[in-house]
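anyone seen this seq b4? input:
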Amino acid sequence: MAFDVDQQTRNDLAITAAYGDTASIMSLFKPRTLGGRLVLADWFDAPLHDANLINERLEFIRYLQQTGTEASFHKDDLDFIEHYLKQDNYPQKVSSYQAVKSYAQHLLKPSAEYYVITRGIQLLLNLISTLNQYFATFEVQHHSPAIGLRYKTFLNETLSQPNFAAIMPLLILKKLNALQIQECDYVFRYQGREAIKTLLNMVYQLDVFSAVAHTAEQLNFSYPIIKSDADSCLILNGLFHPLIKSPIRNDITFNAEHNVCFVTGANMAGKSTLLKSIAVCVLLVHIGFPVPATSMQTSVFNGLITTINLADNLVQGYSHFYSEVIRVKQVAQKIKQRGKLVVVFDELFRGTNVKDAYDSSLAIIQAFAKIRNCIFIISTHITEVAYELKKLNNISFRYMETKMQEGVPTYSYQLQNGITDERLGYWIVQNEKIIEIIENSSPQDKTV
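predicted toks r here
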């Protein structure tokens, strides 16, 4: 079973940059190579559902961060290697006559094709030497990461194959003769073509792992602990949003006894950012990446689904409220199909009147609260719903604090226990002087 994340959730969390934006969660990690960027996108598209695989990635990234192990892969060199491998007319046998003929023709009339072949071969030989040096420190010891050892084993097994072993002595040569060039070309582009493709994919994965380790060091990410308990668990300490400069950190806990969190707070108090921060951590850990928090303990979940920036649907003629209803239905169906999800709702049923929003929110949350194997985080302005829900013992109530100082709101962005009735919507309207703008925009009689 794969970890489920739909497009609405990806949009809510800014996993990739929207049109006109540059900041995204994926942009936090900066692989050097094009292949590395493609691998990173693939990993974000297919989060993991296996605790062992998650732990293996975390172990390897932590190893790279702690040891500072880094391979000097150059983007331009790898791009050239890819270009070389795509050349037509690859040799299907080694011929001394053809090797000398091609070399002589190149001397008499330099050929771009021959240059690409010789340059590509030299870069591939250099890459193999770099990988040999990189994995020289990986030994079969208890502290060596499993992924690194698998990569090293693959490299050793590939280079020990007869076709590769025959050209390994050429690694130390600064210049190859015509026959050696054809021998390498025959192995790289014909006999060992698939092995070379696999080796390059390994290089791109190493590029991603190194980039993630660098980001973890730079942004003070931590390495989550994966819990094997049957009950759902999510504990975040020092949680923050990685796209915010100088962020405020918060703590939040979900477990079998309290699997629903109801968050209240005034406009601009930080509710949406908090919800996004939690969801980002859940997604990153299921990719096998460190997270923006001081510490994290979590179960492996079956999916993540959020409703934060939901729009109406003009194509299907849905109003905002009906889009919300359809989204809640989708969540309910997903829970029924998969179970053990992390579900995030920001301002449930904001697209209708207060009475319908109250009745709908209360009924839906009461129904969700009966499902104990999922985790729910729900925010609202309608605090009356919170007071009605207090009779349910598995719901915890938190609020984002706001204080008025000399008539001006100040935000701590700190999560507090309890429920708040603070409302700032009308104050914000007044502060922006919208009424005055409207009144002063009335048509005036003009004298011609």
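The CA atoms of residues 32 and 75 lie 6 Å apart. The chain has two domains: 28-219, 225-438. kinda curious what u guys think
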